Amino acid sequence: MVSSEMVKPLLASNGGDSASRGPLSCGDTIGILGSGDFSRSLATRLLSSGFKVVVGSRNPKRSAGLFPADAEVTGQTEAARRADLIFVAIFRDHYSTLKGLAEVLARKILVDVSNNTEINVSRESNAEYLATIFPQCTVVKAFNVVSAWALQSGPADGNKQVLICSDSVDARNRVASLARSMGFIPMDMGALCSAREVENVPLHLLPLWKVPCGGAGLLFLFFYLYNFVRVVLHPYLTEGKNQFYKMPVELMNITLPCVAYVLLSLVYLPGVLAAAYQLRNGTKYRRFPDWLDRWMIHRKQIGLVSFFCAALHALYSLCLPMRRSARYQLLNDAFKQVKQNVTSSWVEEEVWRMEIYVSLGIIALGILSLLAVSSLPSVGNALNWREFNFIQSQLGLSALVISTLHTLTFGWRRAFDPNRYKFYLPPTFTLTLVLPIIIILTRCALLLPCLRTKLTRIRRGWEKKTYGKFSDLSDTSTECSSNV
Amino acid sequence: MVSSEMVKPLLASNGGDSASRGPLSCGDTIGILGSGDFSRSLATRLLSSGFKVVVGSRNPKRSAGLFPADAEVTGQTEAARRADLIFVAIFRDHYSTLKGLAEVLARKILVDVSNNTEINVSRESNAEYLATIFPQCTVVKAFNVVSAWALQSGPADGNKQVLICSDSVDARNRVASLARSMGFIPMDMGALCSAREVENVPLHLLPLWKVPCGGAGLLFLFFYLYNFVRVVLHPYLTEGKNQFYKMPVELMNITLPCVAYVLLSLVYLPGVLAAAYQLRNGTKYRRFPDWLDRWMIHRKQIGLVSFFCAALHALYSLCLPMRRSARYQLLNDAFKQVKQNVTSSWVEEEVWRMEIYVSLGIIALGILSLLAVSSLPSVGNALNWREFNFIQSQLGLSALVISTLHTLTFGWRRAFDPNRYKFYLPPTFTLTLVLPIIIILTRCALLLPCLRTKLTRIRRGWEKKTYGKFSDLSDTSTECSSNV
Amino acid sequence: MVSSEMVKPLLASNGGDSASRGPLSCGDTIGILGSGDFSRSLATRLLSSGFKVVVGSRNPKRSAGLFPADAEVTGQTEAARRADLIFVAIFRDHYSTLKGLAEVLARKILVDVSNNTEINVSRESNAEYLATIFPQCTVVKAFNVVSAWALQSGPADGNKQVLICSDSVDARNRVASLARSMGFIPMDMGALCSAREVENVPLHLLPLWKVPCGGAGLLFLFFYLYNFVRVVLHPYLTEGKNQFYKMPVELMNITLPCVAYVLLSLVYLPGVLAAAYQLRNGTKYRRFPDWLDRWMIHRKQIGLVSFFCAALHALYSLCLPMRRSARYQLLNDAFKQVKQNVTSSWVEEEVWRMEIYVSLGIIALGILSLLAVSSLPSVGNALNWREFNFIQSQLGLSALVISTLHTLTFGWRRAFDPNRYKFYLPPTFTLTLVLPIIIILTRCALLLPCLRTKLTRIRRGWEKKTYGKFSDLSDTSTECSSNV
Q1: Domain Ferric oxidoreductase: where (chains A, B, C) (predicted)?
Q2: Rounded to a whole number, what is the distance in Å from the CA of A318 to chain B's nearest CA?
Q3: What is the C-alpha to C-alpha distance for residues C121 and C113, in angstroms, rounded to an integer?
Q4: Does residue C66 have a pLDDT over 60?
């Protein structure tokens, strides 16, 4: 970067509009209006990035003690006069109190960092409102997605993206280069009319998790009720047996794996649907239906919720022998065995069934935990595409297959035992098997040479119709959006 | 960046002091004195960032084989002559051996990358000592916080911050831009007198973890002894029963949840205290007492230690039925039941108590594990402030509430059973309930409209006293420091 | 950065070769040939980084709908004409179809972003092939290691490194600065002949994991068979007992800890060997043998596989009492106890043995889980070298010691019980103890003052021979490569 002394004179003669001045350099003075926590953290970070900082406060004396020693704390007018780029770190309600500074601020860049407490609380965004108050200033919306905490804790921590929008391209670039110097990564969001969108970003609450969590909740409710009817209500109504004590642990333990298993199959269903869609259309250049696109975007979250349910299921299972009820039943069974004088109660088939499904369950959980770890941003970032695909697609499918075997050995021959059909309701595990088995069969079908070759060609750009003698590159991405 | 050929001549005429020359560009030559591991890693990284590298070694022939082929390995004088910016990658003890290079090095930038093995081992920092040896050079302290490993493994890995200090602002900026080109994020630490502080940074040993781990250790000791007296010593002294075998597993299993539970409440106590403090003072512009500030900074670590103890408690619990002792007791109980001819030993109340507290315990652990995952830097960075607050504050508090229910159902009516007061000591769980219940009640009180409105206004800058007709922005940060 | 308008005229007169023009600035126009997924993601990211984008498509009308509104989609010739730097996002097979653009593209920079589907599929790299088609262009290989997904999801996510190679240093620097503006970290890979290597990078499949996973697999096979012979085959052949039901769970449960324990000792063995090697040679300037170097690089992966096996072992152990077989055995034992009229089957020694080894096992797993968490990139990055060393070396060794105690208490006196030598095979645990005990003893020996002093001096650069009156800095790195 060329030192500012040389460049500025050249540019100042260029019209005098501050927005078109040269880039910011270390050593330049940055102004901040306001003395709250955000202002303090901003000052600290600017100083440690090598800038000079002037803070404009209503009450400089009182505020000075709150700021780092290197920051100059002065009155608002003085601070506005001293810098060309000024952060406005004041609540929207108090923007109007700055009107007196209009003349001093004219032709300078004002950076609006404010956030709202609710989405779309006002008609116009805070930044646009600021722009109407100071028509002679260039207003830039930026840094609102960064928390005071992230500013203060330095570049090693905190969210690194800074969304920037402004009607002036030059002002945008200046603030972008400032953000870069501070260790953030600027994202250009276009004109100031995007400010509302930018202001809503920090108010989003885990948007990608809502549908997966909601869906998991509904599935949980359905399976819990279904199991309640079969396991608790049926023996109570038909035999008068009180098994309500099973509600807190045993019902949870047979409901959670159903949810986990169905969710896991929902992770791999869209890939199968996408392949079918591409095969039918004979091209990859037709957009997937919106619902399919949205589904594919949520796969990671669905998979993680599935893993969470599977892990809870494991915990519940492991708790089973610890419970008083298990102890009492065992003692009573021992008593019965002695009274009936049965030397051995060993049932070889039951033993094998359980040994196998327990072992398969552990292996499936082990694989799912690898998938979950590779979903952590810092782990996923260290993988190249092929590795990511191997883990998410190959390992994930094998987790699905092993879970299916786990379910099948758990079920054993019960699906064909009429006594298991309480109130004509089939055993729960039979319900959950439908989707995964469809997916596994379709996946096997896609391994057939005829289909596989066609799909590969389609994904490399080949098209069924006449147009397209040659095709564009889409290398990793097709796979990424359809295989994983 | 303007190519260096154009800029340098302009600047060279500017006085000739290298520290004020233009910024470094790809293709510039960087010197390194020393041929150890750090030197090798530094050379590798500089080369891959597009710079030319000259290494000055005492024994160029032997050293050449250790360096990448693109690095030029030559004598020390030659290397010093060829570059304007020279890394000194030599132990402090050997700085004096470089004295012969003083003339060649004059007016160049020396970057001191050395570390000490102990905190404050010498009177002056290594960098300041280097500056006294070469008064004609500009010494910059930098890159010491980066390990040879982080240098070598490329920018995707390793600590990314580089702390820089020097008495010359220009030299600081040059090294900062060099660090940036190499994929690091420079942090300006001011004048060279900060070098001591910078040299101590890599010697810190988990400073934020000392108090939480120490506190957890003390809590563990206290509760272990308390439980030992109640569970082992009391039956031994009063009934002569030998229950010392309970020390490795059962005592651990009842001690760990106490530690976890008290620590979890210590995470949420400072938030309550901060709110009370702000309400009493009627302003947020008064600093919290130092101990409260320090406590708030440690909350994440306290929470993670709490989760670790809770997870160990879960493992210990799950191991209970696996043990020989549990097996022998069961067999003996079965024997007793048969001898006493009791058909059923079922106790409905005991069954319900345990089913409920086991289920609540699993749910609490599940929520705590979500909190722990969101504490991972890469996960936390991907959250905006509202999401972080939701997870840490809402989910965290619900974990505290569910843990409290877990403890209460575990305790059931034992708090009121005189037989449980061994040596007049109340059951352990009653001790742990004090803090969490205070916190939960205070939290509920803060939901009352009168208090909530006042607190919200205070956090938006309102003040009780006369000064302050309007107030500064503190958006996310107030919440961040007081709610979470 | 100086705004492009000023710099370009200066440079254009410099020869006109686009590769030597000034750096790219926000607002510059970037061309993209191709309209696949990668092209779309690239356009999105370039736009959000503040550049203008012109996409050249065979069928602009159809493609336009697939691109963001701000991207201009036009014909290939037009796009090639409008930009100086053009991404070629087309499959290698179709490069030849671009021949018609040769004249328009002359003297421009072509960025080849293509990947292959197999390693070394063609004789020359895609980028070199492109260079032969367009001899008048400057071809740069870059961005192929970045997936379309990483491009689209913004700088907070995805792999951040971009490997760049080209025969023109200027073109390399221009693409490097472009990558930096987009939030990536450029890595200079030298001349275009490195393109093959760069193109192979995204095809690697977890290279560091192959040996550790393969080794773990072999160890698993060996120990599983060994245990099968001892636990299942021996009672079947000698006593006719059918214990094949133990294969899915019990054999897994005694095999996994053997694998985990041996792998854990393999993590700490190379450190001991390296110390011995340095002591014998009396210098640290002699390279370790290649196998030792490679072993040391794989330690993190070996440790994580070890932790995975240990965690599975814990799960299997916890499942033991849940199984039908455990239940049946317990019932039959109760029956037997009643028939034999044994009031108490309590064996104090067995109780103590199991309580202790269970507790030690849990503690060892807890420590290993801390090591595993600190291996996550984002956690490890936040640690300084001393902290990393403390966790990996001190905590890791204590995990090894506690695992050894766990194994010893598990084994108890069985190593000396002739009945335990089935087919003359010693109990499995005795096999696994060999390596760890050697390591622990050697480690203790290295704590002896005479050896420790010598080793410390060697690691600070001291040498046995005559040469080397003073020595170079290698601070953190030596320790890093030999202690950890």
Answers
A1: 258-397
A2: 6
A3: 16
A4: yes
Q: What is the pLDDT of residue A158?
A: 53
Contact B483, B393 (CB under 8 A): yes
Asked whether the beta carbons of residue C362 and residue B154 sit closer than 8 angstroms, the reply is no
Once rounded to an integer, what is the mean pLDDT over residues A292-308? 94
Check if the beta carbon of residue C347 is closer than 8 Å to that of residue B301: no
State which H helix or E strand residue B280 sits in. Answer: helix B252-281
Candidates A450, A439, A375, A456; CA nearest to A403 is A439
Q: Do B356 and A158 touch (CB under 8 A)?
A: no
The shortest C-alpha distance from C61 to chain B (Å) reads 37
- Does the beta-carbon distance from A335 to B334 stay under 8 Å? yes
Average pLDDT over chain A reads 86
Closest CA to B184 of B138, B153, B208, B139: B153
Task: Using an 8 Å CB-CB cutoff, list chain B residues near C478.
Answer: 36-37
**CA-based Rg of chain B, rounded to a whole angstrom?**
32
Q: Which of B97, B205, B315 sits opposite C387 (nearest CB)?
A: B205
Task: Classify residue A191 as left (phi > 0), alpha (psi -120 to 50) or beta.
Answer: beta
- Could you tell me what percent of chain B has a pLDDT over 70? 89
The first and second tokens of residue C188, run together, are: 């200079």
Chain B residues within an 8 Å CB radius of A71: none
Q: Which residue has the higher pLDDT, C3 or C410?
A: C410
CB contacts, 8 Å: A314 with chain C: 315
Are A245 and A268 in contact by the 8 Å Cβ rule? The answer is no
| Residue pLDDT, tens place only, C124-142 | 899 999 999 999 999 999 9
Which tokens belong to A65?
């003690």
Token readout for C73 is: 């989609």
**Residue of C187, C180, C174 lying closest to C50 (CA atoms):** C180
Query: Partners of C32 in the beta sheet?
Result: C55, C87
Q: pLDDT averaged over chain B?
A: 86
Using CA coordinates, name the residue in chain A closest to B388. Answer: A205
Lowest mean pLDDT among A181-185, B224-228, C432-436: A181-185
Q: B117 phi and psi, to 5 degrees?
A: -95, -20
Nearest-CA distance C74 → chain B (Å):
31
Q: Which residues of B touch C460 (CB under 8 A)?
A: 91
pLDDT per position as a tens digit, A86-139: 999 998 988 999 999 999 999 999 999 998 877 777 788 999 999 999 999 999
Residue-range domain boundaries for chain B: 4-203, 207-328+346-482
Q: What is the DSSP letter of B289?
A: P
Entry pTM = 0.89
CATH 3.50.50.60 is the classification of domain B4-203: no
Chains within contact range of chain C (3+ C-beta pairs < 8 Å)? A, B
CB within 8 A of A155, min separation 6: which ones? A182, A183, A184, B160, B161, B185, B187
Question: Which burial class, exposed, middle or buried, applies to A445 when counting CB atoms under 10 A from its CB (0-12, 13-18, 19+)?
Answer: middle
Residue A26's pLDDT is: 64
Question: Are A283 and A458 spatial neighbours (Cβ–Cβ below 8 Å)?
Answer: yes
Mutate to test the interface with B, among C170, C369, C475, C478 (most CBs of B within 10 A): C475
User: Each residue of A226-275: pLDDT tens digit?
Assistant: 999 999 999 999 999 999 999 999 999 999 999 999 999 999 999 999 99
Please give the distance of CA B371 from its chain centroid, rounded to a whole number.
15
ipTM score of complex: 0.86
Counting every residue written for chain A, the total comes to 484
Region of A473 on the Ramachandran plot (φ > 0 left; ψ -120 to 50 alpha; else beta):
beta
